[in-house]
Amino acid sequence: MIRFDGLGKTYGALVAVRDLTLEVRPGEVYALLGPNGAGKTTALRCLATLLSPTSGFASVGGADVVDEPLQVRARIAFLAASMGLYERLTARELIQYFGRLQGLEGSGLEERVDEMVALFEIGDFSARLCGRLSTGQRQRVSLARALVHDPPALILDEPTLGLDVLSGRTIYDFIERERSRGKAILFSTHQMEEVELLADRVGVLAEGRLVAEGTVPELIALTGAPSLTRAFLDLVVPVGAGAAP
């Protein structure tokens, strides 16, 4: 469903992503790990058609991100930690607006908006302006607007960043629900407990390159580490560069 094939992205002399190849299958949750600056967000933005790859390819459901960007956008929900909301629209109006952008209309649109409001527990603040929402409320509305067209692939860039435990739990429950519905889910995070809780497979990026891939037990076995956190450090911190004991 989601594929990177030798994808690279450069900014002048800066290489942000190097020869990235991976696949996320339907019904699979794939976690992308890496330190700040490793290329996670750049890779996800290329997949979401917000950036153009310098080399290689990426596709969603067979649609190429460069040659068929509109088809890709119809097949994905993209959530970025930095993505803003239209502050003068209410939460419900915002979800309706993005539903119309995706071709929904009439009773079908309203039924889908009702479903999103219920799924993300937005009802208590659905009539509140987005500019007056808390961080957790804004994140729930962002998810609802990204998912209103029920796409087969989800791309989530640090979906729980800045959220409290209860709001984070809403996101976890949602990811597990969508996996059970056969969605392909690719998400980036710095939270190892999220990876252990949710991910079927994990990819580790360092300096823009995929340095390891596998299940959590496989990555731990690969490094001989006692935990995923320590395995991650062993994979991304060069020997002698100050890795934690």
Task: Please tell me about this protein's structure.
By secondary structure, the protein is of the alpha/beta class. The chain has one domain: P-loop containing nucleotide triphosphate hydrolases (Rossmann fold), CATH 3.40.50.300. The protein is built from 9 helices and 10 strands. The strands form 2 sheets. It has a 6-stranded mixed sheet with strand order 6-7-8-3-9-10, with helices on both faces. It has a 4-stranded antiparallel sheet with strand order 2-1-4-5, covered by helices on one side. β9 and β10 form a beta hairpin. The chain is globular. The N and C termini lie far apart (39 Å).
* Fraction of residues in helix: 25-40%
Oligomer: single chain
Helix segment tally? 9
Strand content: 15-25%
Report the C-alpha radius of gyration, rounded.
Answer: 18 Å
- State the fourth-level CATH superfamily: P-loop containing nucleotide triphosphate hydrolases
CATH C-level category: Alpha Beta
Shape, per Cα inertia axes: globular
Give the structural class: alpha/beta
Q: Biggest β-sheet, characterized? A: 6 strands, mixed
Spatial strand sequence of the major β-sheet: 6-7-8-3-9-10
Describe, in short, the structure shown.
The chain has 245 residues and is an alpha/beta fold. The protein contains nine helices and ten strands.
Defining traits:
single chain, 9 helices, 38% helix, alpha/beta, Rossmann fold, six-stranded mixed beta sheet, globular, 245 residues
